[in-house]
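User: ok so my PI wants both of these folded by tonight, can you help

Assistant: No problem, let's get them done. Here's the first:
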Amino acid sequence: MIFYASLYSQTGTTFWVATPYTTPSHDGNHSIHIVVSSMASPSTVTLSIPSNKSFTPVTINLPANSTDYFDFNSTMLNLVECSEWDQITNKGILIESSDVITAYLEVFSTFNTDIIALKARNALGTDFYTPFQTTWANHDFSCTATNPGCVQAYSHIEIIATEDNTTVWITPTTDVFKSPTGTHPAGIPYSVILNKGQTYAVRSTSIAANGRPAGTHITSDKPISVNSSDDSMEISGAFDTDADQLIPVNVYGSQYIAMRGYLSDEYVYGVATENNTKFSINGISRSKTYNKGDTLIIKLTSNSTLIQSDNKQKFTLLHVSGNSNETGAAILPPTDQCSGSLQVGFNFGHAETGSYLYLNLMVRAGAESNFLIDGAAASWLTPASFSTIAGTSWSVARFSLTNVELTEGNHIISNTKDIFHLGYINYTGPGSLYGYFSDFEKLEVAAIAIKSNTDTAIACTGEPLQLRVDGGVNYSWTGKNVSTNADASMYLNSKTIYNPMVLGTIPQGDYIFTVDVSSACNGPVITRSVRVKVVQSPSPQVKSASVCESEVGSGCASKINLTTNYTNLMTNSWPGAVIQQWQKDGYNEQITLDDFDGTRFVKYGANNATSINIA
């Protein structure tokens, strides 16, 4: 049976990822799963490979609070795995959803598994440094010319472009492979040009611990996403894939809290972004100076370790953890800013005897007693479990759970007062899955209508419309009619939740719904608004299609640029059809047509030269 974690935290509607290659000499029957989880609203999720036009996009319809996955089995790995080193390939994955979801990539393997927590907008940038562990080597599979089916495991970097004509500059810190048989020398920049969805993989030339391209600097002129991955990294005879999606420099912090897992020896690996950087460990400054791209190595000797740069220089931090020498890797979230989540869902999937779920919690001090598991207090999650980290605003606790303390299946952990970070390690016996599923970037408050995914929307009478606010702790909604100033709060199904519904009983009119949000981290009350235009619903004999002039949103066919006399210039392009109504305001346009089947076009503009497909 296959189980997946629903991790409501690094939410978004767009995710990009390049898939790391893992050697079939370790597990030739592995698969790649893209696991997606909805939140309080249903979502339609589509997976595409934009640079591979022969790949037909696949869609999953997720009910609210549910999880499903896209499967690339062992016969389909060539579609997505970045197995061609130093070559441009058409293998990048794009995940798009109609409402916010979370997503992660799992190398689904009995012996060589890990998860990559996809970070949505927090993964995209133009300036990256690549952290790697430099303590352990890749397993030596003893590949020789007499064994042509053997494939050696290496460490590597995967890059995916999100726009056409993206130039990527790579400055490796060690010699890396150059196709077909050469090397790109350490310290010498080189570049590649990628189109939307194309991928490029950098591979080390050595399997030695010090042969990894740790601290490699990658920049671009358009947003990209980058992974670091370490295939079949070996500790005392056990070897596993360790991989994660990186964050760009603008999301880095100057302070981190590293919480141990259950390996006998655990380390974190930081990369400096500025010259003359010094670090303090648990408040004690170290004398060594680090320059850009240098790797900081810290052995974790206590359950929690505070790591800071002395002058608030930004750096990134990678943690290798797990249990019984079965490892995974995760980028740690910065703790010097108001970042984190108010709710995180997870699945205790591998809950059989001998499997464990390890949860590492960091919460803002003062909110230790406000945790709930599945909406209720849990006997094992108590305020006494937490200890404060001196010099910070955080408290931490570690929990080791079996199916006695927590039942197998889906669970939600939430905090009713402030934000937290969750480190998740599911030890399966032959492997460990490790990831941080918290929002890395500073928490921002925004209110939207889910239908349009913006702060404006058109709704028809009789149709409910769901609103949502992202960020914050407590919510107070009000509403009014813009024209009459009359109260419209009675048309909300709740005034104190983050995702109220505008009821279908609301009459025609122009409305503003406003929410006062108590922000996290003891911040001020923040006010946000959503403007909703309610128009008369067409009769059963007519259908509607929406066209947005400013941007393409839900239900919109195309961008258009209508002239002021567009009403006279419009025409219908099929016999017997009648344009019944055309409405325009400052943010949306809606056309109502009589009933039709099949594909239809509305033409408009000079000589009816422009058409819109509204099938």
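One down. Here's the second:
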Amino acid sequence: MFFVLKFSAFNLICRLRCFKIKVIKHCGTGSTDRQRGKSRNESEKTAQCQNIAGCGNSSGSSSSSGAGSTGGDTTSASGTEAGDTGLTAEEQEAVDEGIIQLDGTLPIIKDPAKFEEKYGKISALIVNSADRTVEVGDLAMCQKWFEDTGVEFDWQPIPQESATEKINLMLSSGQDLPDVFWNFGDGKSGNTVVQYADQDVFLPTEGLIEEYMPNLKAFLDDNEQYQLEITAPDGHKYGFPYVEEMKGLVLTPGPFVINKTWLDKVGKEVPTTVDEWVDCLKAIRDGGDLNGNGEDDEIPMATWFGATDTFGSYNLFYRFTGAFGCADSYCGGNSYADHLRIVDGKVTFTATDEAFKKTAEFFNMLYEEGLIWNGSFEADESMSFKSSLIKENVAKIGSFGVWGDQEITNQEVHDQYVAVPRLQGEDGMTGFECNYSELQDSSDTAITTTCKFPHVVARFVDYMVGDPEISVTSNWGAIGYNYEKDEDGILRTPLDENGNYKPLNPEYKNFGEARVNSTTCRGSMIVQNEYYDTVCGYTFDAVKLLEMQKENGKDDIMEEYDTIPRVLMTQEEIQRLAQIQPTVSDIVDRYITTWVTGGVDDASWESYKTELEGAGLSELVEIYQGAVDRAASAAN
């Protein structure tokens, strides 16, 4: 039985960048999200992204008019096409008096002193980093922006720990609203603007994008999935996206590794098939004191059943489903879409495909052979292998998956591991793509309806988008803090002879500190894949991670699978998913544990599917199908 619904707009979806047309084996039904881990997922997402200098605050790709210009379009100063309502009275007055210019040239505010005297500064609320010791307006990039554009915001910082409550109180009352919400907290902009979309709080921005933002428009025109992901259920766009492309870094799990030193000792090559991988695990099991510590403590394989991590890295079960005919997935960064995928143009729940059952049988065999660490069933993260075994000073595990190779903290142990190539199975290959996106916030720099200078804000954002160097340094840190230019003019993070971060500013000891104290970080910046090695070097501490992902088969996996876009949903849809998904998730997790330890039979498999349907599985799929169809229709 397949819980699938056809796209009403399939011809539109076929055009999407990530919705590639290819022959893919048909998958079945199922779903997953962890209510018990929901609050933790947010902190995990932030923590995992912060572990990598670049991850978690920008990305993109588009044509641009280059540094020093926000465009070159021929829009009239009071154009009203494509939903733009024309200039405000204040903007028209400022244009007439030569205080501002909105024709795409810089500076945007020609006379900042007169602008401030007559109108005051444009106010911008920002969720402030606890690690920031510099006043927002004094940040090096804020000074750079002012130098280039004449725009100087009246920053209104609020602490991160109470940001959501304060923002909701402000929006509910409609009192003392800033002109702009620079951000709302990591990943929270979309749900916030949707929640208040019918209360005349936020200004729709699709007209501004069309008429006043040629750089952002070109980028979105070239990236139709991003168009989907910034379109609210009412068909409007609010604010502007924050995109941080890193060659798909966050779109597949982190490295799946095996201990090459141990393989050498037991006379095995790095495996290329599922059967060879199992043979390697058996050889490790029987190989004696491979780590040389005089103890019988070698573990062939460890995983973390029930993991809720952001990028689906620690639970190996899902990496193997594709080898049995239909890849399944989980992704704490978009957990309501766990076990969903686009298959043959339909939203499909993949955890009830026969491949899922075969994967459970396979893992039961591994368990019966004594190849799985007993601690793999612990729900508590502190008891998982990622928090214990890979932190020790000798290698303990033969094979496992992690988000970042740097989690293996002992360098000697770290260097024993190599990435496992994508393994060929009986009916497919290992690996899956996450239901995630490099568009990490849909609606930052959200303009409120009380703002008197929305077109100035739009031109300012387009300036950031249109200048690659500004996009990079606005996202990751200023020149003289996290970057210096090499002899070819490429922005590089300074490293010492061992490849470690070398501070340019002695006040800040690491990349993160220098970043938050030289730029606002999260906002409507767009860093594009094409910038690497043309504008800046790839983020230094993610180089090895990306390399190992590619060895795991990343490029082929991303070509092969069509994921669920992170579309914006109505409050009613989110509330219903919150009721259905935790139960569905618990059912999936519970049965996996039962099957791995006790085996699978037809009766339990049918019981599993019946429980899922009773939990609201078909409604869950229907909600997602409707949301994707709606976004596709509105975006086009």
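Residues 1-26, 28-51, 56-82 have pLDDT under 50 and may be disordered. The longest strand covers residues 123-128. Good luck tonight!
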